[in-house]
Amino acid sequence: MAGNFKMLAKTLFGFEPILAQELRNLGAGHVEEGVRNVTFEGDTGFLYKANLCLRTALKVLKPIATFKVHNEKDLYKNVYEVDWPSIFHQEKTFAIDSTVNSDNFNNSMFVSLKAKDAIVDKFRAVVRQRPNVNGQDADVRINIHIFKNQCTVSLDSSGASLHQRGYRILTNIAPINEVLAAGLLLKSGWDGQTDFLDPMCGSGTFLIEAGMIACNIPANINRESYAFMNWRDYEPELHQKIVDASLNKTREFLHKIIGYDKAPSAVRKSQENVDNANLSEYMTIERKDFFKTEKPVEGKLHMVFNPPYGERLPIEMEEFYTKIGDTLKQNYPGTDAWLITSNLEALKCVGLKTSRKIKVFNGKLEARLVHYEMYEGSKKAKFNAN
User: Fold this and answer.
1) What is the pLDDT of residues 322-337, one digit of tens each?
2) DSSP reduced 3-state for 377
3) Which of 74, 139, 220, 382 is the most buried (most CB within 10 A)?
4) Burial class of residue 203, CB neighbours in 10 A (0-12, 13-18, 19+)
5) Partners of 60 in the beta sheet?
6) pTM above 0.90, yes or no
7) Where is the THUMP domain (predicted)?
8) Residue 11 CA: distances (Å) to CA of 61, 180, 340
9) How confident is the model at residue 364 (pLDDT cuts 50, 70, 90)?
10) DSSP symbols for 85-117
């Protein structure tokens, strides 16, 4: 189709199939899974839509040049040949992120520096003025990827990582990344068709992402800016059209989303973040100790939570994780309970059989997303009833 081009969305380890499915659901063409990324095709409107709607993407890149490189001269020459002044204005700041896996280049900083020289020299030659570099908060981000002798230059259409949704103003000490939270919820099968509980809700990330999935609200609706807004070919009217069309696809949610936390500060932060996300009407957040609670609703309950990992307090953690198992077993019949932890030793103390165990990463920590299926009555009774 005319106007379509190739794009690449970056994601977290293990989330490639979910991201690929998200892209297909949005209408992307030629979707192919890679390692921590998914490639796809679409037009400019789809690039805007991908940034707005994808829940499990960290970045959306638009490749603009691919060439062979054997040395720094090849790199400089090919980057220089790109018509940079037609892509962004010299008054905009820019930054380069490089990833290198090559015998010819072993330093990504050096690659970024050479590419920066080529871009600056191109501007000087064409418009007699150079743009400034801003590593922290650049208007335009450029991505350079060298694998062996193949170099791909891409425009980073997102800018700041897409996990920065714009709703989370207050956080706790170890908040869960929004993209990770959304991916874990989707892996758990959350679809908004039951009640939901996060019994250790912290700053409310699972609650908010669960609410947005349930109502089909675009993931980044609260975000104010993307790097593509600083490109010369940015079309604000088209972007607004995409936003309006996406908001028209929201749906009503007829169940409850409940959050508990022991700490008053966490309850306050959660409530503020939920308010910022405009989801207060669907949420109930209370100060409660999970170990002293019972299932708050009739019927099926979907539970996802991120208990403390406590790597420095293994003895207390054993007791803590034993209590998790006891509370689920005694007080939460008819519950699909999912938790993420990197404390694999403490996990053994839960004392319940997992029906699924999925390897994921929380930052650099290798973790497991585990599923405990708590039946109404005993498991034996369930099967006798069938």
Assistant:
1) 999 999 999 999 999 9
2) coil
3) 220
4) buried
5) 9
6) yes
7) 46-157
8) 12, 9, 18
9) confident
10) GGTS-TTS-EEEEEEEE-SS---HHHHHHHHHH
